[in-house]
Write a structure and sequence with these properties.
Blueprint: H1 2-27, H2 36-47, E1 50-54, E2 60-63, H3 70-78, E3 83-88, E4 91-98, E5 107-113, H4 119-164, H5 168-178, E6 187-194, H6 200-211, E7 216-219, E8 226-231, H7 234-245, E9 251-254, E10 258-259, H8 263-277, E11 284-286, H9 299-309, H10 318-333, H11 336-343, H12 347-361, H13 368-383, H14 400-404, H15 407-418, H16 427-436, H17 441-448, H18 452-466, H19 475-487
Parallel strand pairs: 9-11
Antiparallel strand pairs: 1-2, 1-5, 3-4, 4-5, 6-8, 6-9, 6-10, 7-8
Length: about 500
């Protein structure tokens, strides 16, 4: 009887001890505790051993490195044997095969201790290997999912970059594989959603969920807190506004509907609208489709003049010409660094392409009036891709001065710049001088006889009056420069790259 009682106590004690370590091991499978290194560290402490988890190539996956016989390891990882136990120079070793997701080959869990493996420690090693196998499978599945999401994200960015350089054919071809029908449209809106950089990834996922397969959602490569959404259908815009409306500190700017070839221009509009959205209670704004200067010019004359200005690029291969023009338009709209990030090239590449265009046009992009006129040319080149009625009807090509002197454009320019007249600080004079100085406050201050900070304050004060951003290069600034040219406050630049005999060629000035 006494023997039976002792046996009962031993069985009870063994079961309780097993329940203890088994419960500890199961804790590592809970959502908050799934850490491969912690499981291996627990096994080492529980078994009073050195533990190593390594792959078939010898790469340590967890634990500490344990010297092993490579032939034996190969037998275990290849499946010739499932496990091995041996004594080697006073060390007691257990090697257990751990399966991994294909195409990865199996790993081996090696446990080395000074004392022999009793029944309890052997059970711990066996069960720990099963937990390690589960965690490895979960980790590799999560890693594969992450790689897939990363590849898909990179593909979305590649499509956007193709649209930014007007390569709509390639963009449609790439998109068709994963998102059939997404770009089967001629027009789309571009939205920019802004949050804190730390929240950007979650916001991007929410934008993807909200728009489904009806929009191209891209983490902006230039601004850490921005998500760019190209939406061919208006339903996506409604979903984005609803998303932003319930998220404090998140803002939405949207473009006017544009042709896919004008994605870069639409992006600029969305960024401009975003600045307005930050001050609106609904945290969202669409770009105000105001009258643009090129719309006030005679289309046929504008088309002929644009063709003449860009004629030095006509000898280039079509894709090279399109690449140079698209890069230059982005480079004029944004900084070279941001343009490079948007296009997925180096900033040196952006500068080299712009330098080449500058050289072909034989002009100087440091001159703000040149930048504004070239920006007008590039926008007109996209907007007037099809020759309008009356093209080539004139006996002589249009001059830039002819385009700038039209009554509609002059009326628009007078009305825009006239808003500055009531200010007693003579903001109009400061702004005119600042533009003539290439947007350099120090040079303008020297000409005006005032402090550079005062020049900046005057320019900043003109922004809300004109409802345009001036201190950041882009469409807003170039419109104001064109207004000065049309009003006669600044002299139009000479574009030296035109064909011989063109009215804007220096020999005819």
């Amino acid at each position: 009887m006494a023997g039976r009682k002792d046996a009962g106590r031993q069985r009870t004690s063994g079961a309780g001890e097993h329940a203890g370590w088994a419960q500890e091991l199961l804790e590592h499978l809970r959502p908050g505790g799934r850490d491969l290194n912690r499981v291996v560290a627990w096994l080492a402490a529980t078994a009073h051993a050195s533990v190593s988890l390594r792959d078939d190539c010898g790469r340590l996956l967890a634990g500490t490195r344990v010297p092993l016989d490579e032939g034996l390891v190969a037998d275990v990882t290849s499946g010739r044997i499932a496990s091995a136990a041996l004594e080697d120079r006073g060390r007691h070793l257990r090697l257990v095969r751990v399966e991994r997701s294909l195409p990865a080959r199996a790993a081996v869990l090696a446990v080395a201790r000074g004392a022999p493996f009793d029944r309890r420690v052997s059970d711990i090693v066996t069960h720990a290997a099963q937990v390690v196998e589960l965690l490895l499978a979960g980790h590799e599945s999560a890693a594969a999912g992450h790689r897939l999401r990363r590849a898909t994200s990179d593909l979305r960015l590649a499509i956007l970059q193709l649209l930014m350089v007007e390569d709509t054919v390639s963009a449609r071809r790439v998109a068709a594989g994963l998102w059939p029908g997404l770009l089967d449209t001629d027009t789309a809106r571009v939205y920019v959603v802004e949050s804190g950089p730390a929240e950007r990834d979650r916001l991007a996922e929410e934008c993807l969920s909200a728009t489904g397969k009806e929009a191209l959602v891209v983490r902006c490569p230039a601004v850490d807190g921005h998500v760019i959404v190209l939406a061919p259908r208006d339903t996506a815009g409604r979903e984005l506004r609803s998303l932003v409306g319930r998220r404090p500190g998140v803002f939405l700017g949207g473009s006017a509907r544009q042709g896919l070839a004008r994605t870069a221009a639409a992006y600029g509009q969305a960024v401009s609208a975003l600045a307005v959205a930050r001050f609106r209670p609904q945290q969202a704004a669409l770009y105000a489709e105001r009258t643009r200067p090129e719309r006030l010019m005679v289309p046929a004359e504008l088309h002929d003049w644009t063709a003449g200005v860009l004629s030095p690029l006509d000898t280039l291969a079509h894709h090279t010409r399109a690449e140079l023009l698209a890069t230059t338009r982005l480079g004029l709209e944004f900084t070279a660094v941001n343009a490079a990030k948007i296009l997925g090239v180096s900033r040196n590449t952006v500068r080299a392409r712009m330098d080449r265009v500058e050289s072909l046009l034989r002009t100087d992009f440091d001159d703000l009036t040149v930048r504004a006129v070239v920006h007008l040319t590039l926008n007109a080149n996209v907007g007037l891709a099809e020759p309008p009625p009356g093209t080539g009807a004139r006996s002589g090509a249009a001059r830039l001065t002819d385009l700038l002197s039209g009554p509609a454009l002059r009326t628009w320019a007078a009305g825009l710049l006239g808003r500055l007249d009531p200010d007693g600080r003579d903001l109009r004079r400061t702004l005119r001088t600042w533009i003539a100085a290439g947007g350099n406050a120090e040079r303008a201050a020297h000409r005006l006889g005032m402090h550079a900070q005062t020049v900046r304050e005057h320019v900043r004060s003109a922004e809300p009056v004109l409802e345009r951003q001036l201190l950041a290069a882009g469409s807003d600034l170039y419109e104001v420069v064109l207004a000065h040219l049309a009003a006669g406050d600044l002299d139009p630049p000479s574009l030296h790259g035109t064909k011989p005999g063109h009215p804007d060629s220096p020999v005819h000035e």
